[in-house]
Design goal:
heterodimer; A: mainly alpha; 9 helices; B: 88 residues; 0% strand
């Protein structure tokens, strides 16, 4: 079975649905099944994530796809589906034979970290919950690598810019306090 | 599966043109049904390989539980609970 083709078709479909200004029940059902199928394919065959990050055609841009489902979408059920799906993908065990490959956890965490400043403009419960979950997982992994004195520990610690993130969080809190 | 039903569904799904498939209500229902069948068969196949079975099963179970929930709001984002940064 050509999982790569299935991934392209499923992502393209989900992306088209997300572009609709208004979603009805069937649209949400399609998104739910599409995300389930996609995460299943990824869990089965981890190299598909590389294709997702660097697609051959520019129809589905990874960053845009994740943010449009997890943050921009006005429907809570859809955002929740994305949160569940991305959390499951990030729990994937990394490929030990190719440690240089970008892990889903690192990719998604970096994406969420870089776009953290956007969250006050959208409903962000799912984004925030996923971000916290991935941060926990990331730092647990870094700590466990340090315990093993692994050389990867230093590189793993550089996935997110903690200082910039902290500044953004403080800035957002200040803004919200000023609004109140 | 022995009669080629799965292959037929897969071929039909892969051949569907997305602009057309997402237009009418019938087409949407059909696509959702085809996706549901594909998901069920492919997940069942994955579960036999033993890798990450738990994750897949949790996602599939959760989805199937919600499938019967036809009472969900029909497209009004305002009807769904908001979750702003301020509320967090």
């Amino acid at each position: 079975m050509d999982y790569s083709a299935i991934q392209r078709q499923v992502l393209s479909l989900a992306s088209q649905v997300l572009k609709k200004p208004k979603l009805i029940f069937e649209d949400k059902l399609i998104l739910e099944h599409a995300l389930n199928l996609w995460s299943g394919c990824l869990l089965h065959s981890g190299e598909l994530f590389d294709e997702f990050m660097k697609p051959l055609d520019a129809e589905v841009v990874a960053d845009e796809f994740v943010l449009s489902g997890l943050l921009y979408c006005p429907y809570e059920t859809v955002r929740e589906e994305f949160r569940q799906c991305l959390a499951a993908i990030c729990r994937m065990a990394p490929d030990q034979t190719q440690p240089e490959k970008t892990k889903p956890l690192d990719f998604i965490l970096k994406l969420l970290s870089v776009n953290f400043s956007l969250i006050s403009e959208y409903p962000c419960k799912q984004y925030f919950e996923l971000f916290c979950e991935l941060l926990d997982k990331h730092f647990l992994e870094v700590a466990s690598k340090r315990q093993l004195n692994s050389q990867d520990a230093g590189a793993a610690g550089q996935v997110i810019d903690s200082e910039a993130l902290l500044s953004t969080v403080i800035e957002r809190i200040r803004e919200e306090n000023q609004k109140a | 599966m022995s009669n080629g039903g799965f292959q037929f569904i897969l071929k039909d799904f892969m051949g569907s043109k997305q602009g057309e498939a997402l237009e009418g209500l019938f087409e949407l229902k059909y696509l959702a049904f085809v996706l549901s069948l594909l998901r069920t068969f492919i997940m069942a196949a994955f579960s036999t390989t033993g890798s990450d079975v738990y994750e897949v099963a949790v996602l599939a179970r959760r989805a199937s539980q919600r499938e019967g929930d036809q009472n969900e709001s029909q497209g009004d984002p305002a009807a769904e609970e908001s979750s702003s940064f301020k509320q967090l």
